[in-house]
């Protein structure tokens, strides 16, 4: 996989983590909540920049959006049983996942749609 593709996939994974509350980029609780809300809206509204970034990453934007909606719903409900193992473990441990296998983890999420 080339560097540009990896970059865009990492951008999407970072946004996924923000959308489900796994962000360590913001020092205050308010900033954290704002980042989480902004990321959720980015996926839910599927704006043009979202669609472009999915395309740059080699993903179908609708599949990404649907997969992330499933993650957001699981995070809010506390029911992680239907999530792929990587995401289920991250939610159960309540901490941000490692980015070492980001492409594989996004691919797994999209396959389980």
Account of the 3D structure:
The chain has 113 residues and is an all-alpha fold. Helices cover 71% and strands 0% of the residues. The chain is built from 6 helices and no strands. It has helices spanning 3-19, 29-45, 48-57, 61-77, 85-93, 102-111. Helix 1 packs across helix 3. The two termini are 23 Å apart. 24% of the residues are buried. The model has no long low-confidence stretch (mean pLDDT 83).
What oligomeric state do these chains adopt? Answer: single chain
- How would a textbook summarize the main sheet? none
Which structural category fits the helices and strands?
Answer: mainly alpha
User: How many β-strand runs?
Assistant: 0
State the end-to-end CA separation. Answer: 23 Å
What is the helical fraction, as a range of percent?
over 70%
Shape: globular
Question: Using only CA atoms, what is the Rg?
Answer: 13 Å
Q: What secondary-structure arrangement, pairings included, does this model have?
A:
Elements: H1 3-19, H2 29-45, H3 48-57, H4 61-77, H5 85-93, H6 102-111
